[in-house]
Specification:
Radius of gyration: 32 Å
CATH topology of the largest domain: Molybdenum Cofactor Biosythetic Enzyme, Chain A
Structural class: alpha/beta
CATH superfamily of the largest domain: MoaB/Mog-like domain
Number of strands: 26
Number of domains: 4
Number of helices: 6
Length: about 425
Amino acid sequence: MEMHAFGRLTSVDVARRRLLAAARPIDRVESVRVEEAFGRVAAATVRAPFPVPSFYRTTWDGYALRSKDTAGARKDHPVDLRVVGEVFAEQSYPGRLGPNEAVAIATGGAIPNGADAVVIFEEVERSGETVRLRKPVGRGDRISPPGHDFPRGTVLVRKGTELATTELGTLAACGVGEVAVYARPVVALLPNGNELLTPGAAPETGRIFESNNATLSAVVAAAGGVPKPSPPLPDDPVRIESAIRAALESADIVLATGGSSVGERDHLPTLLPKVGRLLFHGIAVRAGKPTLAARAGTKLVIGLPGHPTSCLVNMYWLVLPVLRKVARRPGPGWVDGWAVLGSEAVAPSPGLSTVVPLRFERGRAYSTFRGSSVITSLSGATAYAMLPPGRRRVRAGSRIRVHHLLPPLGPGPGA
């Protein structure tokens, strides 16, 4: 079994900077229905094509009337109005309101011509076709004028906005049925290793089930991308190179897992320089040192360690902000904060930064790390800390800087 040593390792800051600098935001645009646009990023600024509402309408159930007909109404001197019709939300009154006339009207209904106010049902006494008022009604009471919600030309959504419920409701309220959005970046997932079995297959001695496809697909989707997982590839450099080149035809980013280190069957370090310009191989970090990346034209190929914990923590601190940049989403995908350590953290290493996955209990942070090869090292982890190189173990009670993963990957700070 042939092995060789890593060359000079790249620091975590430099590795992330290089990868971010090489990433290109998606420029493909597509049109989708507003009902299907949640979480998408607007590719153009949208303005209101007409005012909303586009007509005078009532904001309450009641009676539309002429306010001047009620000017003298008092408790001891009521005013009677004759009810001459009714208007539901989808209707309009065909005539013009005359002196001492009223029209029953439902919330959202169009105000009849001649009316300038609405009195609610609870404030009148009705007998047959007559309503009695014992106090005056002010001009404009309970009426929403044209453009009250937003005038024509109002910016409804700005280019680059991540569309949430309020933006989508605003678009729909203005009659916008489709919206231009940036396409979701496609991310190909290529696990490799002779020992890997596809989940669902029968167990075999000496082989393990491939789990990185599942975890990385979740991170890709959370960042706004479309994961395209593939079955595990054998440790065959020809097949791995062919799979990477084929994936680059349709994917914006290729994530290869396993085969990234310096062993006899670690083929990615020799393959990536063939398909693009190598950005780095080997990061001064634990876990996840055997990570590499290359730029192929406008696309990225990233090789992550096969060990589940190493793979996923590197996906968080290194790849997540890159995914979000390509998907045109703001921020790295986490929020920085401080926390008190509830138990001792993994001891830092001289010359290596250390990623510590964290769970929170009663306001304190606890390390979940159990080893790079076990996925349970991340059980319950919703944040991570990046400890600088050193020799001193971080003790319980220490205050450390943490990075809280944002939904849906984590609850964010304060949860």
